[in-house]
Amino acid sequence: MNTILRATCALAVASTLLTASLRAADAPAGLVNFGKFTKPTNGELVEINLTSDMISMAMQLAGKGQPDFTEALSGLHSVSVNVVGIDDQNRDEVMGRMKSVRAQLDAGGWQPVVKVQEKKEDVGIYLKTRGSEAIEGVVITVIEGRKQAVFINIAGNIRMDKLAALGDKLNIKELKKVAGEIMKQAAGSKEPAPEPVPAPASATKE
After folding, report:
1. In this structure, is residue 85 part of a structural domain?
2. Rounded alpha-carbon distances, angstroms, from residue 101 to 61, 76, 96
3. 172 domain-assigned
4. Helix (H) or strand (E) holding 67
5. Within a domain: residue 86?
6. How many other CB atoms are found less than 10 A from the CB of residue 92?
């Protein structure tokens, strides 16, 4: 009996480890787990987690009537939004989580595209790219004064030109700001070459 019990336990453990490894292998490169947050005593805690199945359902509901929204959702694996109110009870936890997430992104090869540290706002926006071919992940981390923090992760095959539509339909103002900022940076990197300066009149042939 003991031999059978030990064998059964070993099989269960092996099965669990195999399942976990398969899930890890299936996870897209742009997926980030922010963990669970403690609800503040005085404030809100909003958590939105859209899986691939829910995204497919949303695309079907949107149909042909909302092409921008449908195209923005196409290719996405997941959308995670956490809005955490900050008070004395959870301030250290939230600030520590923000610092930890950003450190992990830096160590994981994510590209910081926007970093703003002002008195009333602290913003960090990161992209996970696959060479110059595709964007696999977007992470937005924001601390708005001493009132709230925002953690957003979008994973999958991401269309940057459709992020604004996605932010508008999901009512994520930070996502709309990011889309505008990234598109502005992209346009700035493609500025036309300056026109040649005409030669001085004295250098021209008479």
Report:
1. yes
2. 34, 21, 9
3. yes
4. helix 67-73
5. yes
6. 10
Residue 51 belongs to what domain range? 29-184
**Pairwise CA distance, residues 42 & 38, whole Å:** 12
Provide the mean pLDDT of the chain: 76
pLDDT digits (tens, 9 = 90+) for 111-125: 998 888 887 889 999
How many domains does the chain contain in total?
1
Amino acid, res. 173: K
pTM above the 0.70 mark?
yes
What does the DSSP assignment read for 98-123? Answer: HHHHHHHHHHTTPEEEEEEE-SSEEE
The yes-or-no verdict on residue 130 having pLDDT over 50 is yes
Backbone angles phi, psi at 130, to 5 degrees: -110, 90
Cβ(139)–Cβ(98) under 8 Å?
no
Is 62 among the domain residues?
A: yes
